[in-house]
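Protein 1 of 2
SEQ + STRUCT:
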Amino acid sequence: MRANRWERMSLGVMALIMCCVAGAAGVDYAKAVAEAQKEGDLGVVNRLCNEWIEAKPRDDRPRVILGRIYVSLGKVDLAVEQFELATEANPLITEPHCEMGDILLKAGKLSEAVKTYDEALRISRKCMPALLGKGRAMLAQGDEKGALAEARRGQQHKPDDARLSALCGEALLALGKPGEALVEAGKTVKQDPENADAWYCYAKTLDTLGRTEEAQEAWRRFLGLEQDEERATRARNGWVVLGIDALFPKLEGRTTSCALSPDGKQVAFVSYQDGIYRAPLDGQHAPVLIASCPEGCDQRHLSWSPDGTELLYYEAIYKTRGARVKRIQARLGQEPTQVNVPDVRRGLCRVVWSPSGQEFQVGVQNSGRRYSIDAVTGESRKFWFKDEAGKGLICGDADYMPNGRELVGAMALPYKGSFLHRAVLETGEAGPRIFSYPPMHPGSVVVSADGIAVAITLYGKTPDIRRHLTLVSTVPPYSTISLAEYRDPYARPDWYPEGRKLVGRIGGSGQDRLSVVRFGGLDRRPIGIAIKRTDDGALSAAVANRTENLQTVSLRWEAFDADSLRVGEAVERKELTTLTARATLEWELELPPEQKKSAQTVKVTALNQDGIGAVELMDWAEEGE
């Protein structure tokens, strides 16, 4: 009796299992998942994919779908796990390899990305995502010819693919063939006017050729189509790298901090344990030594005075682990003088000139304190900073905003992580966080002359953590990108006065050298400046409000000679001017006779009420010929 009962129960359970299996076998999981994805219900998608995997363990599709979902959620490790399981389920599919290649490419692991794309290409030589991904990775590695070859190989199978044409255009541009790149890019936007890659290549090529207005329109078209947030951030903030031009190749691996002259014509830089050099930025003349490096020291953190006469820097002393600040005339045959602050026993470091040149700031080693020092009298005053809750902050490196009334600095509560803030000097009040450093530590902080961006260096707790030069916007919405590998966090970079170039020690170990990074992308500056000179020598500046908001604008102009020294004093309009939305006003710029006689460069700066604006340079001698 009992046996019959167990037999009947067993048969019932088996029947139920068979029904469930039959039911599962009858489910169209691909269709069900597609419908759930369309509805945006990730929970249902996840459940259905797991049921799909259970029902059909050799089907790769649910693994790929789950992997892509994890990518969209930023859960990269889980995504890679799913893609690897997909390759185990079906070794003959390319999608998981391409997806993993894309993850590695985005993480900057270029060699690994190329190998992963090659896995897909071993399965199918016609795999377009793999050809595209490998080409982009090779382009990022600096292998422009290899990238072009991959794109051309893809075009043999898909000659009308706009993405491949765009890759060809970018490779040609990197090879120094902007004319050919423009032809390819122009063809690309006609092939597929709704393709973001096509517009990216076209806009970048126009920017490289100096066709600024056309480039701006192309960037706007690109941003209306782009899905990748990082690339959109670069374009939206004017941080698209058009090219990186190495300076002084014989000094590879030896240059550290650098500073540009206020007219942008000269660069001063530190050659490790050798000294401070100066040279024309165009590289037409060899560098000359300004100040030798004392034995047992490392010179760091150059800052060039706004009038072009002096350089500030500090020396790190190996034996005592101390530091001292020095200032030196920015010409040959000069001796530096040491800067001291009364009653400060610790070493001074992290120096920067104020925009007016009337004072400069120094930091105090291992303390988080900062002092402002009068450039003439040497009198000093201490600065205190506090957060929005009124709690005291310690300050690492910092730089002035162009209006001279604010600092942008790496600040922290004691024993807490550091954050980047804009702080008002008069009150010491720090505004909202504009960048979070943890788990990294802050290095240098350098604000662009137009105030729209700040370049920062970062380093990790251990030397094996990759160090990067990072760009951060100073106004909401705060944006951030990792620009390039940057080995030395103490090597201070510097911005070109007009803001579309950055000079710094760019590159990884064994490849780092002093370089000029050229930028393109959308021009975010709220103010535009156009300098005009008539045949009779009269000079004027047309200042435009490029926003829909009312702006209060200040104007300043100055002239520099052939040695990058300011001729006479800077002239500043005493009264502020209100510019209505999209309005343009023109002002006459008066240059005294001695300035007209010696001037080589005229520099005009316009800033709004927020300390943001624009800087424009004009070659006075060239315009007058």
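Protein 2 of 2
SEQ + STRUCT:
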Amino acid sequence: YVADISNKFKKVFNGLCQKVCFFSLNKLNRFIKVHKDPLPGVSRRKIAYKINCNDCDASYVGQTYRKLKTRISEHKKRSTVSEHGLYHGYNLDWDNVEILDEERYYNKRVISEMIHIKRQRHGLNLQTDTEALSLTYNDVLDKLL
């Protein structure tokens, strides 16, 4: 549940004779871990993430099944993200990559990635990164964002 977006989303769908319900993901077992310590961010897998530029408001959103540190090392070699840094002489915030979502199912993770790409103001993602997003999602997101 994200206050502004969720309420707008509900309002749009309630107008279309659809009922929208929300449920809590914040269950006690998510906060109290008896058996294991949480993994550091760079060791987490199956996530959507965001890399910010330290020198401007540009950002890149991606998703990975593998460990985040593996994916970051690939971005550093040659990618749209590293080209932004090289072309403009900017520094990307490789040490503080933001984890946006954790989703074990690929399709849900990709949809999450596409939604976060659409929410960016100055994204470094290619326009083709959101082509697979359903027109239904696009219409709703355009009204919400």
